[in-house]
Design a protein that fits this description.
Layout lengths: L1 E4 L4 H12 L7 E4 L20 E3 L5 E2 L2 H11 L12 H24 L8 H20 L10 H17 L8 H11 L2 H5 L6
Parallel strand pairs: 1-2
Antiparallel strand pairs: 1-3, 3-4
Helix pairs in contact: 1-2, 1-5, 3-4, 3-5, 4-6
Length: 198
Amino acid sequence: MKLFCTPNSPFSRVARVLVIELGLETAVAITTVTVRDENSELLAFSASGKVPALCLENSHTLSDTRMIAQYLGHIASRNNVTASLDNIEDYAFEGFCLSVLESICVWVREARRAPAHISEQVIKLERARAVRSLEYLDEHLHKLQNTYALASIAIACALDIAGRRLDFTANNKQQKLAKWLFKFNHRASMLATQPLNT
């Protein structure tokens, strides 16, 4: 199998972390590609050209982070990598964690625009959303204890890039979350997948 990624994509990083956490390094070849590029190798496997994308041995390609996580858990015989619909509370929390990652990515993209094109309204909205999310996570930290669960990895990747690109992270008001993130960021899988040029 091939996992197509870019070095700095947080969603790619989620998949790369999972490969390491699940011990699938020999089964999954990490392939770095370009995106928004009409000559990208990825386009031969996925018309969307988005990362991460997991090309299976039967030539089917999974292009959704949650689907990829579920499939990696399946081949690693781990049934708790992704939440089950049988537990709607966990399923909803996992969706929330992925939405936090997406919101942080929106904020990062907006902040990287040329100054004349930055929307201060978008920045303000995404920052407020992030503050609310961190407060919620600090209050529900027990839900992030499974180190190879999609929810935990998504939040770790979201807060790591927020700290690197936006100078935004858990603070004195979210001490439990800050301690959790510090410990998680020192896992071998997180150290091995650190973004470039940040």
